[in-house]
Design goal:
The chain has 268 residues and is α/β, with parallel strands linked by helices. The protein has one domain (2-267). It has six helices and 15 strands. α3 links the parallel β4 (63-66) and β5 (98-102). The radius of gyration is 18 Å and the shape is globular.
Amino acid sequence: MITPIKNYPAFLHKENNQKTLIITDLHLGWETHLTRRGIHLPSQMPKIRRKLLQIINIAKPNGLIILGDVKHTIARAEQGEWRDIPEFFTSIKAKVANIQIIRGNHDGNLEPLLLPTIKMHPSTGTTLNNVGLFHGHTWPAAKLLSCNTLIMGHVHPTVAFRDYLGLQTTAPVWIRANLNAKKLKINKRRNKEKTAREKFDPEPKSEQLIIMPCFNDFLGGRPVNRQSKHRSYIGPILRSGAVNIETAEVYLLDGTFLGRVKQLRALS
């Protein structure tokens, strides 16, 4: 059973006596990106760590899975990340022994920054009972399609609101969409994916896709209710035709159901 934690961008997966916390898109070290543009901010890692520790104190999980983008720089690690990421995980490891990370598109050269007991999964994802977990910038592994529910990050979904004066605000949201798994393409360029497909020939069973909000409060997001002729939804699974975003349900972090994406277009 997967349950959103009210007022937080986090899921709790419960199975027997095991509870696993699921979050995504920490983007630790994003301040360096601003520094290069002349905007100087102190490290936000302590605030992000404090929020995660609050959730851990509430949920009391046995394990933690991060769906990618632990750090912000893509192909390398900046000086601040070498300082902040080991300190971050040392604090979290003291509360949750079992930590796993699915590689995101920002997680190049992440392993040297991690504690040796943290397990890394490829970007194609992993399964947790009947739930498939992946980052979202690449195709999910074939085995994930045998799960009823897929959960991804990467998109940083928000909803945009515009009042009668033209002022606009945005809020992070959960997205729950119907999924036609038979329309998903399997990446056969990698031999292990092709071999798995030929050997097991998994019948796609996935029925819903959940897109998680970004865990880092300070980053912007992509308003799912704003149409653009020049921008498409990011990630191959959203561009595959298997997901109908227009009919997807949109929820605020406190659980409020706002409506479907197509109904929220007028708000942006």
